[in-house]
User: Fold this.
Amino acid sequence: MPHEKVLDDISHRRYNPLNGSWLLVSPHRTKRPWQGQQEAPSKNQLPEYDPKCYLCPGNQRAQGDANPQYQNTFAFVNDYSAVKEEQQDYSPDPKTEDVASLLLQAQPVTGRCYVLTFSPKHDTTLADMRAQEILPVIETWTRIYASHLSSSHPLKTEAVRAVQDIPANADGEVDPPKHQLRYMQIFENKGAAMGCSNPHPHCQIWTTSTLPEEPGKELIQMAKYKQEHDGRHLLGDYVKLEVEKKERVVWQNDSFLVVCPWWAIWPFEVIVIAKRHVRALVDLTDDERLQFAEAIQEVTRRYDNLFETNFPYSSGIHQAPLDCTEDEAKASWFHMHFYPPLLRSATVRKFLVGYELMAEPQRDITPEQAAAKLRDCGGELYRKSL
Assistant:
């Protein structure tokens, strides 16, 4: 269904082909007065170095380890990991005729969680950093991903090449896991509104023995689309469609498209999609890694410029699993989601409550309207002129 002007004014549902779900769009609700909770505007008044920060260079962390005097990125195993490599065995007895076995299912999950700093500077964010300064972050993501691939992975050759092309970073290296893991989720929570407990610029990397729900749904949908449409790829077709339509495009370069997706739930949600069939970080060339850094910088800077605040969000990369078949690798298409909560100002946020929890997600401002606002937010970062 093409976007028509009437959809800016009427309630309607939109389909998300990436996970097979629907959402309700109610554009007329943007006119309602707001008397609910308002967030405090985020202010960037942090020192470049905080002696109490457990992520700053040289400082001691919660478990007693001291950080090195790192220059770019620094990676370490999370002192409070959500999953662990070693734990007590659990093997449920599959009694198919037993009601408890059918309804009270559980499975063990092992893995390893990392923290990765973006910069030694406590007071910076990705929006403040140049693309060249973000590049070491992407290079470190790539090296960590490559080090966790299974020995029989379809991308093993690409991983070897990528590691050879990327300069080593002693502070950004991690040891391979003791056991082969299934998936790696790279994500960032920026801002207190998204539950971030430390403002030092950093992300987390969780590797697990299981395939999580969201990337698992996407992989199923992409494989299904590929099978039903003569080998074409869902996101490959979507990139071509959005480049042609233009109305939801925020920014693009030769390698990446930034778009407010047709099915976006969050008010200013965007997705960064590789234009060619990139299956994972290790598929990227040197130039594409830099162009990916440019895309991340464009998104985060435009977010901050939109309401002239340190814009909160959760972002995450979806790519081929660490241990996968040839078909799963072919079905994967590298992309990055940004889910920001702010709705109409630096102080009013979107809540997923009520109908959204009990029925289905709902949004007010349309993705087309959101894209237009973000397109207008280019240029220099607002706080550089303050």
